[in-house]
Amino acid sequence: MAAGLAMRVRLQPEGLVPLTALAVWQRHLLQNPPHALPPAEALFIGRVRSTTASGTPLQALELEHYPGMTEAQIERLALAVAARHGLAQVLVEHRVGRVLPGEAIVLVAVGADRRGPAQRGCLELLEGLKHDAPFWKREWSGGVGRWVEGNTPLSRVQESL
Amino acid sequence: MAAGLAMRVRLQPEGLVPLTALAVWQRHLLQNPPHALPPAEALFIGRVRSTTASGTPLQALELEHYPGMTEAQIERLALAVAARHGLAQVLVEHRVGRVLPGEAIVLVAVGADRRGPAQRGCLELLEGLKHDAPFWKREWSGGVGRWVEGNTPLSRVQESL
Amino acid sequence: MPCPEAPGLITVRLFAGLRERAGWSERAVAIGTGQPRPTAADLWCRLGLGDGTGKPEGSLPGALRIAINQTFAHADQELEAGDELAFLPPISGG
Amino acid sequence: MPCPEAPGLITVRLFAGLRERAGWSERAVAIGTGQPRPTAADLWCRLGLGDGTGKPEGSLPGALRIAINQTFAHADQELEAGDELAFLPPISGG
């Protein structure tokens, strides 16, 4: 880990409450000098939609992962983004298992000295999670499960940052 | 306000605790259907640095604003960004008065159906606050106050999004 | 024959470093009847707000912004009685 | 004369839709001694994981990704005894 970088990657089988996870993370930073709350912090929270990709009501999302590789791969992605932008802090929490509509599925928090690196780091890390971390979603609707293959494109942002 | 847009703009003379402000905002959304927690939420927290622009230890930051115009101007900026990106929710909380190193000075939370609009909306609104909302910072260091004129540029992100 | 207008007042406000250099934050300025309506640049000169660097009369510092009735406005917009005019030094928000 | 190597095992893992179509999630596959080392594409064919669409032997579906020992790898990387090989259908994280 780069000197001074505070990093935490967690897979959550039980539930992910973003504001609680952030409070725990802030306490950790404040209690472990020289870490501190960053001047610029960019965050992203993703939650489960109430409908499937085809528009039917969603009962639940099932998230499969590759135990061991998924954690290691997220850490690799986070370290690469942190090095590229000189980040001070990276927190990633990601649900696995069965997640209900409205529940949080992913939380990314990136801290830096300036807003530009924090924002770019948060965007890039989220794209990494979407495309390069081994997660597979299955949408359950009407008692039937359907694997989601791939992600929605991000359009302009991805290429331009 | 656009149909379905939940918007809150607050100037905080007393103190801004981002996680508490977010908890209050979430409760408001959940208690006022059809508002709900958004599938994609991009957030930014800015905090006061421990040093001045010239590198000396910062005692405090003093934030002057234009009562009436500042709130109205933030609302105009937020409505424009929300319309441009089809946002569902915008929260802006900004400190005024005397702010100490490490304290939060600004919180922006933008909710949308997809991550692209949420992220772009959050970036643009923060740039609006930096450059087009009437706030003036004075850095206090060694008992002397110096007005900060202008902001650090965002470089690549601003033009490309 | 139209009635002569009563003289009107414009409220002028200054902020931050500009307020401190001038030594005041708010003034009421009378605008005469029968004269061309003043602009922000006119009042900037009339109130002696220039920095003495020899800029020609009527010109405003480039970084300065103008608000009329709490909305950003162009410096050459004509003012009316009752308007609130503010001179805004460079913004540093967020 | 070098000693003949004992036959080695490769662990093959499948995930998500691919696991369900195949009907299994993990298998140990023996690789013979004295033969060229197999690649992921070789094992894909040997395990009958193709979708029967008549793709030539040795080719993998374009959207499929490979991990060897829990790290992304090229499909033509040669495998060794003890390796863990995973076939990963298109990712949908975050």
Order of H and E elements of chain A: EHEEHEEEHEEH
CATH topology of chain A: Aldehyde Oxidoreductase, domain 3
Question: What value does the Rg of chain C take, in angstroms?
Answer: 14 Å
Beta strand count of chain A: 8
Q: Ends of chain A: how far apart? A: 24 Å
Count of individual helical segments of chain A: 4
Strand content of chain A: 25-35%
Shape field of chain A: elongated
Total DSSP E strands of chain C = 5
Helix content, binned percent of chain C: 10-25%
Radius of gyration of chain A, Cα only, in angstroms? 16 Å
Largest interface: A-B, 36 and 36 residues
Low-confidence stretches of chain C: none
Largest sheet of chain A: 4 strands, mixed
Integer average pLDDT of chain A = 92
Q: What are the defining features of this structure?
A:
heterotetramer, A: 161 residues, alpha+beta, Aldehyde Oxidoreductase, domain 3, four-stranded mixed β-sheet, four-stranded antiparallel β-sheet, 4 helices, 34% helix, 32% strand, elongated, C: 94 residues, five-stranded mixed β-sheet
Structure overview:
The complex is a heterotetramer, with 2 copies of chain A (161 residues) and 2 copies of chain C (94 residues). With 161 residues, chain A is an alpha+beta fold. Chain A has 4 helices and 8 strands. In chain A, strands 1-4-6-2 form a 4-stranded mixed sheet, sandwiched between helices. Chain A has a 4-stranded antiparallel sheet with strand order 5-3-7-8, with no helix packed on it. In chain A, strand 7 and strand 8 form a beta hairpin. In chain A, helix 2 runs antiparallel to helix 3. Chain C is built from 2 helices and 5 strands; from the N terminus they run βαβαβββ. In chain C, a hairpin with a 2-residue loop joins strand 3 and strand 4 (71-73). Chain C is globular and about 40 Å long. Chains in contact: A-B, A-D, B-C. Chains A and B meet through helix 1, strand 2, helix 3 and helix 4 of A and helix 1, strand 2, helix 3 and helix 4 of B.
